[in-house]
Structure formats: C-alpha cells, structure tokens
C-alpha cells in the first residue's frame, strides 16, 4: 500500500512537471515555418526563412510545361510528387480537424497547404497526364548543392494511360480533395477547382490501374517506390472524395472495392507508402459521427489498429523504445511517430463525439482520454521529454539537432557566400564537424535510434534528415495540445 502511494505520488509529480514544460504554440509556429524552408520556385515577399532564395525556376521546361513551385521532400533538392501529395493530404487533415485550435497560425498553415496544391494543380493540368517528379534523384544525390545553385538534371517524369501510376495519382487526388475541404469556405472558387481536379485525377488513377513504381521504376525506386501497391491509394482517394463531395458514387466505390482493394488487410501502418490505418480511421468518422453503419467494417479495422498501439493490450504490435517513443525499423522513424500519433488523436476525437470506447483485450480499454495521453506523450518526447533531454525539432528548446542532413541548411547561405558552390565543392560542408550555418526552424529529424540515442551527425541521414511528411501531421497534433495542454 505504501509503495503504491509512493508510486502514485511520483506519477503525479512527473505528470505535473511534464505538463507545464512545453510551449506548444511556439512549437506549432516553428513546425509550420519549416515548410517555408522546403519551398521550391519563386519565393514570395513574406518568406520568413530569408536565407532561402528562389530556386529551380525552369522546372518543367524539359517537357515544355511550368512545374515551378512545390516542396523539396527532405534534405535534397528533388521534387517527389508522391510524398509531396501525402504531405498536402496530411496538412489538410491537420487543418480540417484542428484548424480551429491554430489561432494566428492558421493563416500560415493555409499557406503551407496552398504551396503544395498550387503545384499539384500545375502537375495535373493536362487531362490524362500527371507529372510526378522533377529532378533525377541519382544526379541530385550525387551532389551536395544549394537548391539556388542547382545544376543537376531536372528531368521531368510523368504517368499517363500507357504508363499508369494509380498510387501517385490516387494520393494526388486525395490531396486535392482534402484541400478542397480546407478552402471550401475560405476561397470557394479555389476549392471548386481543387475538387474538380481531384475527381478527374481519381478517374484517371482508377481507369488506368497500375503502379508508378513499375512504370517509372528506375526513376522512383528505391526513393519513393510504392512498395505496398496502389490499391490503398485508390480507396484513400475515394474516401477523401466522398468526404469532400458527399457524392454517392464514391461511397459505393468504397463499399464495392473494399475487399478487392484490400481495405480489410489490417496493416497497422500509415505513411507516404501505406495508407491502411489512415483509411480506416478516416472512414470511421463517417461511422461514429455520420452514422454510416454500412461502413462498420472500417471501424472494426480502426479499432484493431488503435489497440495495436496500446501498451498492455493483447493486440499490441507496435513497439516503443525504452524511453517511450513509437519505434519502427527502416529509418526516419519520426514519420511513424507523428503519423500514428495523429491518427490516435483524430480517432480519440471521433470517439469522444460519439461517446465510444474500445475494448482491447485483457483489462485494457481504449478511451478517448487514453489515446490523447499516448499521443501527447509522443509529442512531448519530440519536444524534449526523452533520455537525451533534447528536442528533435530544430530551433525549439535549448538543445536540438545542429547537424541535420539538409543541403540548404548545411551550406552557407547566398547572403554569406554569394559565389556558386558546385556539386562536389559542397562536400567539405557535408563533412564539416561543426553545426549547420542556417537554422531550418521547425525541422523535425528522423530521430533517435532504437535505444533513444541520437548522434547528431549529418552523415547518418536515417536519423538526422527532416522530411515534410514528418511535420505535416505534427501541425495538427501541436495545434490540439496548444489549445488543450
Ligand atoms: C544507438 O546509438 C548509440 C550511440 O550512438 C549506440 O551505442 C547504440 O548501440 C545504438 N543502438 C542501436 C540499437 O543502434
């Protein structure tokens, strides 16, 4: 009894100290600012990360189209359409579910969505064609160059009816549909354009089925190869189109193709490659709040997924590091942390609205409060409550990664070094032991290894590289915890 009291006391103290310790508003602001550092194309006058300048202003010229703009995916200078579209979908979902908690940051979040969707609109402007990548990834990765200096091959890659890409086209349709919800009341004409385009891109994706990893294998693999197949993206796109348009056809598509496209594969993953858990959580909202009971099977899958994250549950499959971070093998672990935590938080809100809880076997029950607590613990880990006692977000807190694997951040800015730095001339900056000269504010890196260690080394890109799809779901998480600390 005494021991139990002592433990309770200890728990109360540690909860109290961690509760007061984070400035979620500051972290949110930085999390969104990061996207400005990833911008490609002509930068606007209100650009806040001013060490970045215009870049890749001729993108698309190889195919006589305008493909300027969009985001570099990570620490390199390639514009990969597949993860960029996923980033836009998740940024949009963040705004849809948590925009009302974003306060003055909402405007910046909307700009971050629009920077991606403006580009996706250009990439999908020709019916039956979708431009899915600008930049030869091998040529790019062979150099350590500022985007402003780039002289690597800006090859343009596309999918069309003879070279299908239902994965990348499905994700692009999902992004455009999700963003149409974001802008529906804020800019109706833009929202209409996004939704119309989402519909035609989906039609193309569904009619000409195939994987872009096959059509464009040598360009996209192994970088953003769709290892998992294109079926999930078709369902994912239909789910977003249904949410955006409420058209019966998409609902029927989901029902008809549920088995064919493997919606019941209970794969507990969510990322640029694999949409399964996301599909089930998204459609569960229709079940729990919209009372679409004919989609109940998706909620059952989502329940299984939620339980797979609950410590102590007999369904638990997803691992945690000794320090408490969700951990999956394969590098860039933080993408799983933020994406899975986002789903937990979104699901917890849908459950609260409909007064639900989910039994997870043993004596473990998934309640909305429990899911929020797990998601918050992950966010707090990122912000500094971890064995390294450091934040994994650049510029947040006192200790954070200083040697991120990022070309623009690690090379001197144009202001301090106006002369060109060529492909191989950049190598010395890559190998330099010191910190990066330019702070890529808000960048969240791949994160610590399985035993919670972080070497802060530019060369270990699996741990030190930021990506747009790590930050996109974190925007929603931080907004929620800012409003509900
Ligand atoms: C994590 O990194 C630390 C320090 O760099 C190292 O000692 C440890 O072996 C690594 N753990 C794993 C599982 O790689």
Would you write up a description of this structure?
It is a single chain. With 485 residues, this protein is mainly α. The chain has a single domain, classed as Glycosyltransferase. Helix content is 48%, strand content 4%. The protein is built from 19 helices and 7 strands. It has helices at residues 2-19, 24-37, 81-98, 106-123, 137-141, 166-183, 188-207, 212-215, 217-220, 231-245, 248-257, 276-288, 296-308, 334-353, 368-383, 407-410, 427-431, 461-464, 468-483, and strands at residues 79-80, 129-134, 156-160, 319-320, 326-327, 358-359, 365-366. The strands form 3 sheets. A 3-stranded antiparallel beta sheet has the order 1-2-3. The protein has a two-stranded antiparallel sheet with strand order 4-5. A two-stranded antiparallel ribbon has the order 6-7. Strand 6 and strand 7 form a beta hairpin. Helix 3 (81-98) runs antiparallel to helix 4 (106-123), helix 10 runs parallel beside helix 12 (276-288) and helix 14 (334-353) runs antiparallel to helix 15 (368-383). The longest helix has 20 residues, at 188-207. Mean pLDDT is 94; it is low at 1-19. The structure holds 2-acetamido-2-deoxy-beta-D-glucopyranose.
């Amino acid at each position: 009894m005494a021991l139990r009291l002592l433990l309770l006391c200890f728990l109360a103290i540690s909860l109290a100290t961690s509760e007061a310790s984070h400035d979620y508003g500051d972290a949110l602001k930085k999390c969104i600012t990061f996207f400005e550092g990833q911008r490609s194309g002509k930068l606007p006058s209100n650009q806040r990360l001013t060490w970045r300048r215009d870049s890749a202003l001729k993108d698309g010229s190889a195919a006589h189209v305008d493909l300027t703009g969009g985001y570099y995916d990570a620490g390199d200078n390639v514009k990969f359409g597949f993860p960029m579209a996923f980033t836009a979908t998740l940024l949009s979902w963040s705004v849809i579910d948590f925009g009302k908690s974003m306060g003055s940051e909402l405007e910046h979040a909307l700009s971050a969505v629009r920077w991606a969707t403006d580009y996706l609109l250009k990439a999908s402007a020709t019916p039956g064609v979708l431009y899915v990548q600008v930049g030869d990834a091998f040529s790019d990765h062979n150099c350590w160059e500022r985007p402003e200096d780039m002289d690597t091959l800006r090859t343009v890659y596309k999918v069309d009816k003879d070279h299908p890409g239902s994965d990348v086209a499905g994700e692009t349709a999902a992004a455009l549909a999700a963003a149409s919800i974001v802008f529906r009341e804020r800019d109706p004409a833009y929202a209409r354009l996004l939704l119309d385009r989402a519909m035609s891109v989906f039609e193309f994706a569904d009619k000409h089925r195939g994987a872009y990893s096959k059509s464009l294998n040598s360009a996209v693999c192994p970088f953003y190869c769709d290892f998992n197949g294109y079926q999930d993206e078709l369902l994912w796109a239909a789910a977003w189109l249904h949410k955006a348009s409420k058209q019966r056809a998409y609902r029927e598509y989901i029902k008809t193709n549920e088995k064919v496209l493997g919606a019941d594969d209970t794969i507990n993953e969510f990322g640029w490659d694999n949409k399964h858990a996301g599909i089930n959580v998204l459609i569960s909202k229709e079940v729990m709040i919209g009372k679409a009971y004919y989609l109940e099977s998706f909620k059952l899958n989502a329940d299984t997924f939620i339980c797979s994250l609950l410590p102590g549950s007999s369904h638990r499959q997803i691992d945690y590091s000794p320090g408490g971070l969700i951990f999956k093998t394969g590098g860039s672990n933080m993408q799983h942390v933020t994406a899975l935590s986002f789903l937990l938080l979104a699901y917890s809100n849908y459950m609260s609205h409909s007064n639900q809880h989910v039994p997870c076997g043993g004596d473990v029950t998934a309640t909305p409060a429990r899911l929020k607590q797990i998601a918050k613990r992950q966010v707090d880990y990122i912000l500094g409550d971890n064995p390294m006692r450091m934040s994994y977000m650049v510029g947040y807190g006192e200790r954070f990664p200083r040697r991120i694997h990022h070309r623009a951040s690690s090379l001197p800015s144009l202001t301090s070094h106006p002369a060109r730095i060529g492909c191989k001339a950049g190598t010395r900056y890559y190998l330099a032991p010191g910190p990066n000269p330019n702070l890529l504010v808000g960048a969240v890196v791949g994160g610590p290894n399985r035993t919670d260690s972080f070497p802060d080394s530019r060369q270990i890109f699996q741990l030190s590289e930021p990506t747009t799809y790590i930050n996109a779901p974190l925007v929603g998480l931080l907004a929620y915890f800012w409003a509900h600390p």
